[in-house]
Every structure is written in C-alpha cells, then in structure tokens.
Amino acid sequence: MKVWALHLVLIAVLFAAQFLLSPYHTTNLARIMVLAVFAMGYNLAFGYTGLLSLGHALLLGAGMYAAGLSAQLWGFSAGPALIVGTVAGGVMAAAVGLLALRTAGVSFMIVTLMFAQAGYLTILYFAPTTGGDEGFTLAAASRTFAGFDLSTDTPRFFAALALFALGLLVSLALVRSPFGRTMVAMRENEERSRMLGYNPFAVKLAALTISGLYAGAAGAAYALLFGYVGASFTTIQYSILPMLYVLLGGAGTTIGPLLGAALMFALIEAASGLTTAYLFLVGLALVVLVLFAPKGILGTIRERWLKWLP
Amino acid sequence: MASLIETHDLTLHFGGLKAVDGVDFSLMAGEIHALIGPNGAGKTTFVSLLSGRRMAQSGTIHLGTEDITHLPAHIRVRKGIAYTFQITSIFPRLTVFDNVALAVQAQGAKDLHGRTQAALARVGLVGLEEQEAQTLAYGHQRLLELAMGLALNPRVLILDEPTQGLAASEIEGFKRLVESLVPETTVLLIEHNMEVVMDLATRITVLNFGQVLATGTPEEIRANPLVQEAYLGA
Amino acid sequence: MAFGPFLLLALMEGLVTAAVLALAASGLSLVFGVMRVVNVAHGAFYMLGAVLAWVVAAHVPGHAALAFMAALIVAPLVVGALAAATDGLILKRLNYDPEATIVATIGLLYMIEQATLSLYGPNANPVQAPFEWRIQLPWFGYSGYKLFVVFAACVVLLALWAFITRTKAGLIMRATQVDRTTASAFGINVDRVYMGTFALGAGLAALAGVLIVPIQQAHYLMGGDTLLLSFIVVIIGGLGSLRGTLIAALVIGLSDGVISMFFAPTLAKILATLLVAMVLVFRPQGLFGAKA
C-alpha cells in the first residue's frame, strides 16, 4: 500500500508541476519524463535482470524511426505511430536478444554495442529515406492526438506524463509480480534458477523484449512530442545515457531512472552554459558512480534506511 | 517396485579422464538410494548427467518410460528431477521467502504464500522469512537449499553431499527430514558420511573410476570385498 | 587507371591501415589478455597520441623530422603515464571487475575526449611528415612516408613480440595472464604487472596515433573509428591472442582498403560490425584463435 501510495504521490507531484513551472522548464520536464521511460526500460533489463546492454540506442532508434517514418511516409497520426514505435522497439529487442543472449557478461556488452553501431550505420546508409545525419522533422499533422496538438506545451506535457505514469506503474506491478522475482533471480544466480526449472534464455529474452517496448515507446514519444527524428539518437551516447541515469538514480529501483534522468539533465543543462565540453560531466559521473556509489542514490537509501523501497 | 530413473551405458569423458564410464543404474520409486565412492569417482558428474547440468556423450537416461537424455536441465526439473547443490547455491541477496517462492512459483503461481510457508515449515525455517539469505547461519543456508528442492514438489530429489559442514545435532534433524520424504519422493543421495549412508539408505551404489563397482543393500555393500578393497586397500 | 594498378593502390592503402590498426589493436589485445579488461578508452589514448604529436610539433623548432622523432618518444610516454595513473586510481579499485571496468573506461573516454576538446579545440590540425619522398611507380606516385609507417609498425611489433617472448618482464606478464593467483604466490607483484601492461597497451595506441597523424589530421573525435576497428580486429582474431590479432589486423586492414575503394564505406562498416557480433555469438574464440 505504502509503495503504491508513494508512486501515486510522485505522479501527482509531476502533474502539479505543470502549473508551477515556466514553459521552458515544463518542456524540459516533459523531455526528462520521456527519457525516464527509456531509462525505466533499461532498468528492467540491467537493474532487475542483470543484462548490461550497451546497445539500447538501437531500441530507442527503432521506436523513433518506426514512429517517425510511419508518420512521414504513410501519414500515421500520433496514436498509431506511438503503437508502431513501441512494437518496433520490442521486436528489435527480441531479434537482438535471440542472438546476443547466447553470450553473457563482457561479450553481451560488446555484441549489443556492435548491433547498435550497425543500426546507426544503417540509418546513415539509407540517408535518402532516413535523412541520415540531419534527420527530419515531423509534419504538424502527424503530431495530433485525439484533437490535441502535441507540439504545444500543455498537451505535450500531459502526453509525456501519461506515458511516464503508465510506464512507472507497469514497471512497479511487474517487479512486484512473480515474474519480477524471476527476473531478479536471473541477475542473482542464473544457474540456480535453471535448476529450479526456469529457462534463463526465455526469461532474459522476455525481460529484454519488455525493455525494448519501453525504449520503443520512449523513442516514438520523443519523435512525436518534439517533432524531430535524427541519427544522433542512435549513437553510442544514447546507449550510455540510460545506463548513467539508472546507475545514478539506483539500479533496481523503480523511481531511480526518473531521479537519475532529472539530475543528469539538470547537471548537463547547468554545465552546457559554461563550456562546450559539458559531456565531460557524463564521463566523470560514470567513473565516480562506479567507484564510490555503485548502488546509486535510491539503492543506497534503500540499503541504509528504507528497506521497503521497491 | 518400478524403476523411476534408469540409465544405460551412460558415458562422459573429459579428454583422457573417464569421469563417467558406461554406467548402468536404476533408481527405484520410493527408495533412498545412496551414491558413494572415493573422491574423483565421478559421483557429482554422474548426478550432473541425471539433472541435465551436463550432457552425456553416449548412453541413455529414462525417467519412467520417457527418454530424457537430450532434454535441457530446466525441462528435467519441471518433469520432477530436483537437484540441490553440493556448494550451497541460494539467492544470497534475496529474502528467505523469495528464495523458496522462486521454487514454488516455478510450478505455478497458485497459493504462492501458503506453499512457500509449507516448505519453510518442513525444514524448520519459519520465522526467518524476511531475513536476507546471505545472513543466515551456514546450517540454515543448507536447510534453505533443501527447502527450495522440496518446494519443487519433485518425484526425485538429488542431494549432493547435504550434510557437509553440518554439526552433529543438525545431521540428526536432517536424517529425520529425509526419512519423512519417502516414499512420496524418491531420494538420491551423494554422501561421504558413512553413518548417514548406512542409517538412511535402502540401497547403495558404489562408483569407482567412473564405473559401477557394486549395487546392493547396506549389508551387501558392507560385506562386498571389492568395495572394501576400493575403500581400504588402495 | 587500369584495374590492376587500382587494386595495387587499394592494397597499399590497406597495408597502411593494417599497420596502424595492428599497433592499436595489439595494445587492446594485450590489456584484455593479461588483465581481462576491455578498455573502451583505448581509442582515446590513440587520439591523445595524435594530438600530442601536434603539440610537440608546435613546440620543437627546426626540421620536421626532429619534431616527429620527439613526438614518437614523448607521446607514448605521456599517454603511458596517464594510463598507469588510471590503472592505479580507477581500475585497481574496481578489482578489475569486467563490467565495472567497461563502465569506468567509457567514463574515461568521455573525460579524455571532452578535456581534449576544451584544451585543444574542435579543429582538425595537420602535422608535417618527417620527410617528403614520393615513390614514383609506373602508374602512380606514392607517399614514401606511408611505406615508412608500415615499416615502423613492423619494427615495433617485432620488438613487442621479442619483449613478450624473450625477456623476463614478458615472461612475468605471460605468467600473470595464465594465472593471477599463482603468479602472486610466486612473488610476482601483480599490481605492477597490471599497471605496466595497461601503460604499454596505451603507449602502443599512442604510437599508432603519432604515426597516423601526418596522413590523417589530429582531431578530438578521431579515436572512435579506431576503437571500433580495433575491437573488430581483437574479437575476430580471438580475444587476447596476439598472433590472431595481427592476422586479423592484416585481413581487416587490407579488406578495408579494398572494400572502401570499391564499395560504400558505410556498408562495409555495417557488415564488419555485424560480423563481429556474429563471431562473438557463434565462435567466441575468434576466427583465427585456437579453440579454447
């Protein structure tokens, strides 16, 4: 009960934020929530199931390009485009997983990295369709949902909040379900799980696919809400960022991804005012976290004080 | 009695080492069968072949009438062959409840709580549900491992050196527990403690250099000159 | 130009790529082999080598060859020292945990690149080659410096091979590679071996960076492609196998030269990355490595 209440309060606070923040910050918060959806998906794979992927940009990109291109080429509106993008993320994750999950640990990291790189290069290769490096902007017509214009501040914010809230509650329900326990079992002791009758490959494939659905939804939402689709979202950087958000907020905590995304976003925002080399912070944060706080903020809080935190 | 598990000419060689070398073996339904033999005789490798943790190079394994030789481990577990690890293998950072619940829910999620509690009660770990497994005393960790095996509701429970590292008092409790399992569950036991073997086992198989040296009741094994030679002579 | 000479040119270009790649990849392979560390910052060390060559060239007066010689010595030493510090301050504290070190070296990659961006700037800068011979073939002229790069890489790799197989330090490295615990039981200071190996690996990358910079300008993002190609080479050659790495560098370098001469380079890269993924999935010991 306490747990559900906490999550509902968080959603309510985000809802209220729309009325308190300036339009500039509202847009940023919408962006953070979409990135947090991506990070929540990453967290289900990495934080709960123990799959350290370096290729999630591919899944984000799958969602983004599936939604963007279906809107661009076939005139899909926002609703169907979001669904197409979400499914694309899941399908891509399943396809990658079928191969990559035959490996583990360092090999898994490199295989996912290579697949993501191949995906990025593929987008560049088909530049006439995808716009290559430059990408393309979405027509206003495809950015409407149930009569609301998603390119304006308020509908955009609420669309992002709705997606985030759905993602958060689904992820909470998932990690508290028997399947959530099975995912953690893979992370903690795969061989034991196998000898309890679980098929580790199938469990990990399912977890990765769910993670892909999140990434796909986030990519599609990003395209539809901010109106731009570009190859830069499929570069290695967008595989590292969700890992960073999750490590910072706390791997294996439901709220960690949002917290990590928000903090990192604020930090980069502040630093980019001072220097062009603001990505230095990303590197520094990674090194500091892995050295001194591998459990992240909420992971540490849970360990020390709030054992019930999911 | 019908045989529940039967192997024929089961073989696994590692390079030149004949870890399991043409073993014919049958496990009768409802018995407590002990597997003994000197170190390196191939006991653990043999039960790894039964449980599917390793795949045989040749020979067959039947569970009842079904050929399970090529089935992967997790399918065999679902068909009723449970294995408890020689070196305690639990989920160290999960609670005692979650550890056992993982075994229970592998059989279906119905009445998860009740069935988990029942398995914990059976080994006497009630009251420790919320404790993190890695903080348990060693003896309790062994019991948790056993509870996970029991929670699978297996037809065959394979115990790999279950009394290793237990105190004498704990061994007594363990023996009573194993005796209470049969005949619903058939037990295959690898054990070095001869007292435990002679007290519990209805039949004993002796392995040596990957081959079956003898099979029989405890009395027959005790009287067997070949066994005496393998254990005492060499 | 006829097809034959065209192919010859492609092969010569490929040979230069292969030589530089062999140097960079052998450093990556050495570090992985001995320490089981996948160093994602390896490309950044290569880039630092190139940038430092430019810095040295800007400060050493006189003939270009003199500055170049100085860069050949200074850049690997500086980069090696940086790597040694990284090892002591970061990797060692992570107990060389494979996944944690990957995350940390990703962080290091960002820090090095961004620090270079701040201090060196976003521009690509050329460094003058130490000499300007051109070799006149019947069909085309070819840079003598490029052939020198191939020659220099061969010399360095031979020296590396001799170091590993013929010296006591190399023996200690190989012993540590086989079994860290036993090595330390025999009184080998594993910490020092690791630090030395990491520095040596980084130094090789930096050396490759110095050699390439008269051909390709120094830029703060130039490490990315080299990192990717080095990964490809090391994985296809069999993780940690130096011989496999060299063969793979030759194959990849030559085919890169030929393929990018005749096909779209992007397509070639797509195929190469997919090949690496497939090799890791289906043949983790590499295409040229012995079966484990």
What is the structure about, briefly put?
The complex is a heterotrimer of chains A (310), B (234) and C (292). With 310 residues, chain A is an all-alpha fold. Chain A has helices spanning 2-20, 23-48, 56-74, 78-100, 105-125, 127-130, 153-175, 178-188, 190-194, 200-226, 237-249, 256-272, 280-292, 296-304, and strands at 136-137, 144-145, 148-149, 228-229.
Describe this structure as you would to a colleague:
The complex is a heterotrimer of chains A (310), B (234) and C (292). Chain A is mostly helical and 310 residues long. Chain A is 74% helix and 3% strand. In chain A, a hairpin with a 2-residue loop joins β2 and β3 (148-149). In chain A, α2 packs antiparallel against α10 (200-226). Chain A is globular and about 55 Å long. The mean pLDDT of chain A is 91. Chain B is of the alpha/beta class. Chain B is built from nine helices and ten strands. In chain B, the strands form two sheets. Chain B has a six-stranded mixed β-sheet with strand order 6-7-8-3-9-10, with helices on both faces. In chain B, strands 2-1-4-5 form a four-stranded antiparallel β-sheet, covered by helices on one side. The longest helix of chain B is centred in the middle third of the chain and has 14 residues, at 138-151. The mean pLDDT of chain B is 90. By secondary structure, chain C is mainly α. Chain C is 75% helix and 2% strand. Chain C is built from eleven helices and two strands. A two-stranded antiparallel ribbon of chain C has the order 1-2. Chains in contact: A-B, A-C. Chains A and C meet through α5, α11 and α13 of A and α4, α9 and α11 of C.
